[in-house]
Amino acid sequence: MAKLDEKLIALIGSKNTILTLSTVDAKGEVSSTVLPEAGVDEEGRLVLYEQLETSQATRDLTYALWFGKKVALTLLSEIGESFVIKGIPYRDIIVGPAFEEKYRELTAADPESELAGIWIVDPTDIYEDTLTVRRRLEREQFPELGHLDKDFIG
Amino acid sequence: MAIQIKIPDWREREDSIEKVIEHHPDVPIFTILKTDLHRRGYVLSAAARAKIDVNIHHTNGIHLTGESDSTTVEGLVLRDGTLVCNGCVSDDEVVLRDPYLIDVDENDRIVITDQGRIYEEAEFWRKPDYYDKVTSKGTPMWKVANVRGKRIDSELNKYCEFWDTPGDGCKYCGIGVYGVQEKKCGHQLRVDPDDLAETLQEALKQKGRFLQFNATQGSLLGGAKLLDDELELCLDSLVRIKKLFSRFPLKASLVTTALDGQQLERLRDEGGIGIYTANIEVLNKELFQWICPGKARHIGYDGWKGRLEEAVSIFGKGNVYTDIIGGLELATPHGFKTEDEALESVLKEADLLSQKGIQVVDFVWRVYQNTIFKNQVSPSLDYYVRLSQGISALHDAYGLNNYSRDYARSGNQPSGDLDRIRRRSELGKIG
Ligand code: SF4
Q1: For residue B233, what pLDDT is reported?
Q2: I want to staple B202 with a disulfide (CB 3.0 to 4.6 A). Which of B130, B289, B354, B409 is the partner?
Q3: How confident is the model at residue B348 (pLDDT cuts 50, 70, 90)?
Q4: What b/e sequence results for B329-367 when a residue is b if at least 16 CB atoms lie within 10 Å of its CB, and e otherwise?
Q5: Stretch B404-425: mean pLDDT, rounded?
Q6: What is the CATH number of the domain that holds B157?
Q7: In terms of CATH, what superfamily is A6-129?
Q8: Which of the residues A63, A88, A95 would you substitute to probe the B interface, choosing the one with the greatest number of B C-beta atoms within 10 Å?
Q9: Quick check: CB of B28 below 6 Å from ligand 1?
Q10: Residue A46 pairs with which residues in a beta bridge?
Q11: Is residue B132 part of a domain?
Q12: Residue B236 lies in a domain
């Protein structure tokens, strides 16, 4: 299991972070959805809250859990830093105290809210995806790439 | 007393679960394991039993086949939310094959094991908040309604009148025998509608616990017209329950003997029901007549199917369900001789029903010793896996979204588990 550091844990829990979940279904069809929130549990696993039973994310997370496939959570911080956390769903909580507590919290904020499942995901790979960082890394690792005019001094 | 195994050498006669998993890479291990737990049953080790906390876990359930005690749990939930609803083997039970052992591993997790191998972790079902409360009439609420997954269930009447006529009861049925005993002992056979409404009112204080209310009962044949008594029994409760809710159709499912069109319209209009189930159980005319003689005599195989079709015209495509008990089609001496023949025939018949908007779903047959079929042998695990795959594929092929007899609300049907990744919706599609 890949380890989420404190900075990432804080970013995942921040209201100002934009979270996007990308998934694949049994036929290889890709989907992505913006998540209103996510968290990290005491064991360092991602916690995703899926509100709708009929959502593609619900189906794809199930597929990933069943067959050990990965899903990806992309974070975009308020200062433009971006990270991708890939992982394999480990558990879908549909009953029990944790489920009910979250349901109560959601419906207190919006009585029409639903909760279909709390997904616990084992992080497997973590990448920094911020463009400036990737650009710097590409230049370091592949100095032969990039447009010729960048190095042209006349 | 110890558990008795009727086929001690069954492991030599059948493929192991490992082989079945290997043969079906497109079926999740959770569904295969649950299917086998229903088929073979499970027992709890002393360490697992010590984990039961009667204040937290769901014990002491009431069922149409009897009541369970506090030495075992009502069910298990697996990591993916899969429910194991059946299979807990009592200490003196006679079973066909060795049951799985629910044990505790070195990390203190409850685990499903067989011959020392750990297959998966599991949790015991939790008791709902209403369970130990009592209605104002003094009835313990656990006797009024039970819980399975995210569904609250009431068995409105314990006695099935097919058992009034010798030879009419269904041959695999353990409900009849228990109902007959209960009737003889003068026990309360019906749930009081006031008790039920009060229990539901209490149960729904637990927010986020329930997705559906389900009612079922033994058949009541009498009335001005066949099954009018059963209809009135259901309506008595539904009319009372309807007052508790603001949106219709009710998030409810009702299982009855196959009612006719007029009766179904009353269920929809007066009862507020939008999802209907009438279990045909056996998908073959001749076998239905042999195995379910009472149903065959009063309604008939074609009559049952006709009523299901009529139900679709009333409740809509996909909102009518019929359960089958997988494996009955192989019962001897009149059943199919091979699993391949049986499967082909069942899926062909299920296809015809699916085309008409009826959702066929499958149970795993557990051979109980208090049934007429006590000497029968249920089929292999591989058969059940192929059956549930075939049925779920039909739901997919005909666009039947199973959101009633599914993994969370019912949990009893392996095809309902497989449907989880097949149910469709394109909500919000604008291009
Ligand atoms: S209809 Fe058949 S299966 Fe149902 S309770 Fe009566 S005898 Fe049993």
Answers
A1: 97
A2: B130
A3: very high
A4: bbbeeebbeebeebbeebbebbbebbeebbbbbbbbbbb
A5: 93
A6: 3.20.20.70
A7: Electron Transport, Fmn-binding Protein; Chain A (2.30.110.10)
A8: A95
A9: no
A10: A40, A121
A11: no
A12: yes
Residues B158 and B86 grouped into a single domain: no
Query: Domain residue spans in chain A?
Result: 6-129
A3-59 pLDDT tens trace:
999 999 999 999 999 999 999 999 999 999 999 999 999 999 999 999 999 999 999
> What sign has the CA pseudo-torsion B342, B347, A66, B101?
negative
Q: How far apart are the first and last CA of chain B?
A: 66
Domain shared by B117 and B224, yes or no: no
Residue B425 above 90 pLDDT? no
Domain that residue B74 falls in: 4-12+28-124
Domain finish residue from B124, B158, B191: B124
For atom 8 of ligand 1, which residue has the closest CA?
Answer: B173
Chain A residues with CB inside 8 Å of B427's CB? 52, 54-55
Closest Cα in chain B to A115:
B208
CB of B176 shorter than 6 A to ligand 1? yes
pTM confidence score? 0.96
What's the mean pLDDT when you consider all of chain B? 95
The band of B180, judged by pLDDT with boundaries at 50, 70 and 90, is confident
Any domain includes B18: no
**A5 vs chain B: nearest CA distance in angstroms?**
26
Predicted ipTM?
0.95
Determine whether the interchain pair A95/B28 forms a contact, defined as Cβ–Cβ distance below 8 Å: no
Distance, in Å, from the CA atom of B239 to the CA atom of B193, rounded to the nearest integer, reads 9
SS3 for B235?
Answer: helix
The mean pLDDT of B309-333, rounded to a whole number, is 98
Using only the alpha carbons of chain B, give its radius of gyration: 21
